[in-house]
Amino acid sequence: MKVSECRGFALVNQTAPYIFVNSADSKYAQMFTLMHEAAHIMLGISAGHAGDGFISHDVVEDYCDKVAAEFLVPAEVIREVWNGDIKWASRKFKIVVARRAHDLRLLSDTAYKAFWQEYSKRPISIKKENSGGSFYLTSVKRVGKLFAIHVRNAVNNRQLSYTDAYRLTGLYGNTYQHFMTNNI
User: Fold this and answer.
1) DSSP string covering 138-157, please?
2) Fewer beta carbons within 10 angstroms: which end of the chain, N or C?
3) Residue 72's Cα: distance from chain center in Å?
4) Dist. CA 32–CA 94, nearest whole Å
C-alpha cells in the first residue's frame, strides 16, 4: 500500500483493538504512526492516518500527533539540545523533531512549512524486492530444531529410514541433506 494513501489506522474494539502500520514507510515514520494510532486506541476512537506532515485542524488528530511526538522526542530533551538548526536536529532526532519544535514554539509556522515542503521533495529510496525469505530458515521453524535433531540422530543410528525421515520432515533427497547439514 502506498504511504500517500495510508500510513496506518486504528480500530477500537473492547475485545481486540487493532493497529495497522504501513511497512512501506520509513522506520521512524512507522514508530510515529504506531504511537499516533496507540493514542487513538487509548482515546477509544477508531481512525486512519494518511499524514501529510502539516498541522491538522481536527482536535483528535492533533492530540494524537502530539502524543506520538512527545513519546518520540520529549519536550524536555528538545529544549535541552535545541540550537535553532532544524536540519541538524532532524539528523539527530529524525523528522518528528520538526513537529516537536513547532509544537513547542521553537520553530515558526513559516519555517515549519518550509521544512516540510523541502522534506517532501526529497528522493525516496524504494525497497528492493527480495526473494521472500529463506526456505531453510523457514523449514527450521516449520519442522522444529529439536524434532529435526531427533530425526537426524535416529537416521544416523539406523533407527529410522531415510524414507520415513523425508516423510516426517517434508524434506526430500538433497534438500533433506542440505537442511540437516547446514541448519541443524
Assistant:
1) HHHHHH-HHHHHHHHHHHHT
2) N
3) 14
4) 11
